[in-house]
Amino acid sequence: MSSNREHFSSRLGFILAAAGSAVGIGNLVGFPVSATKNGGGAFLLIYALFVAFICLPVMMAEMAMGRKAQKDPYGAYKKLSDRSTKWSIAGMLGVITPFMIAVFYMVITVWIFGYLAQTTLGNLDLLAQPEHFDTFINNTNVFWYMIVVAVIVNLILVGGVKEGIEKASKVLMPALFVLLIGLVAYVLTLDNAMAGVKFYIVPDISKLNAGVLNGALSQAFFSLSLGMGILMTYASYISKKDDIVGGARMVAITDSLVAFIAGLMVLPAIFSFNPNTNPEELSDSSVSMIFVYLPKLLLALQSDIGYVGASLVAGVFFLLVFFAAITSLVSIVEVPTATLIEEARLSRKKALMVLAASIGILTVMCTMSFGMVEWLTKFTWYGGANKSMFDLVYDIFYDTILPLNGLIVCIFVMYKWKKAKLSEELAQGCEGYEGSWMEKYVNFSLSTFIPVILLAIFINTVATKFF
Ligand code: PHE
After folding, report:
1. Which residues of the chain have pLDDT under 70?
2. Ligand 1 geometric centre to CA of 251 (Å)
3. Residue range 206-215, pLDDT digits in tens
């Protein structure tokens, strides 16, 4: 079975696909804004430390599980635990989580595509109106955009690992990088650009507190696509000769680098638009930054470069975010796809049909939960007023279950699968791993403080979100 399992054609293909998953909406706007609000350079440093010392070992563990088992997350937990029922439940959670995150990410990707289409049609002035976003998300036109996004994702995934995911990543990732660098180069020429760079980079240690640290770690976790079963699934498509340790490091570096560079695009733009911006007043939510604040700011560029010029810059920006979102969406839908192919023995086409229908229905419901359908807007029973079905999916699966899944990975590899087997797997393709300081650190951290930190985040989230 595993002999005819599909594989990436090269290590580069795997790294680009995994980096494509990791680089998403969170990197481009959410990261720069929260860095600026929460201590600038001090935040950047802490974030880098979290990525290197907490996230990287978890990433290596996820990848090792996937490659060893050559299976989707459900199959991996089952196989590596010798079919234990308890661990199969963990595996199920490892598939339900990406399935549900696919729903909320699809909703946002559809909006991005809508904004991209609207800018291309020359409607930037409309997008920049204060109430436009609310009108837009409640207009039935979003369903047309949804169909286009679903078709794109399906076309990529139906091609499979090599011809679909890998090929798309090899085009979209370099394109994304070029668009990003182009925008940075342009934005840095604007008046007051450097004021923004200063706020982003100069450290302000006084801003760091427990809440900021918690937020930074959760952000790093989400940004690296951890706890979603994605890296486990993608690593199941690489061979024993490939170096997981080096691959994980490359993915973490690429993801963090893109997030960092995005700050050199977003902050100069914000400060050039309004030199007196108070960073503390910037919205925490990537959604309101992307769909409400930035269109206003992009339209203001017309005083310099005219309406067409401003629309062009806006178009490039939304295209960039769209590319980032599509590669992430593809990666997350691939997880339940792999499960249906392997566990339910469906063909790839059939698996995708089942998922298009099921993710589709839930996405439509979430899309309607902003006002189109009354009862979907009122999920008040779980967390107070103003909660919608979209909030429910977001709060449970993104905020709460991700750190839990990370915790489960740590406990599984350390106490069920065992250190020696993890080391043996990581050493395949990475000469010198066994006996290295890296091995010692990975085994020590995954069996001690990393699960404790993830447990603390999980408990804290449950307590604040649901009680
Ligand atoms: N790393 C992605 C991002 O920053 C997270 C993600 C991956 C979300 C895959 C959904 C699917 O947006």
Report:
1. 1-4, 383-384
2. 13
3. 999 998 999 8
Check the CA dihedral 127-130-133-139 and report its sign. Answer: negative
Write down the domain spans for the chain: 2-371
Residues flanking ligand 1, CB < 6 Å = 21-22, 24-27, 101, 105, 222-223, 225, 230, 328, 331-332
* % helix, strand, coil for the chain, step of 5: 80, 0, 20
Note the pLDDT tens digit of each residue in 267-313.
999 999 999 999 888 988 889 999 999 999 999 999 999 999 999 99
At 321-372, the pLDDT tens digits run: 999 999 999 999 999 999 999 999 999 999 999 999 999 999 999 999 998 9
Could you give the CA distance from residue 424 to residue 432 in angstroms, rounded to a whole number?
A: 11
User: 434: which residues sit within 8 A by CB, 6+ positions away?
Assistant: 423, 424, 427
pTM of the model: 0.95
Distance 234 CA to ligand 1 centre (A): 14
- Measured in Å, residue 21 CA sits from the centre of ligand 1 at 6
Residues 6+ apart with CB under 8 A from 196: 266, 267, 268, 269, 270, 271, 272
Which DSSP helix (H) or strand (E) runs through 326?
helix 302-343
Amino acid at 145: Y
List the alpha helices (DSSP H) in 141-229.
142-158, 160, 167-187, 193-201, 210-223
3 state SS of 71: coil
Q: How many CA atoms lie within 13 A of 8 on its CB side?
A: 27
> Which pLDDT value is given to residue 2?
46
Residue 276 neighbours by CB distance under 10 Å: 7
Report the CATH fold assignment for 2-371: Hydantoin permease (1.10.4160)
Nearest protein CA to atom 7 of ligand 1, as residue: 328
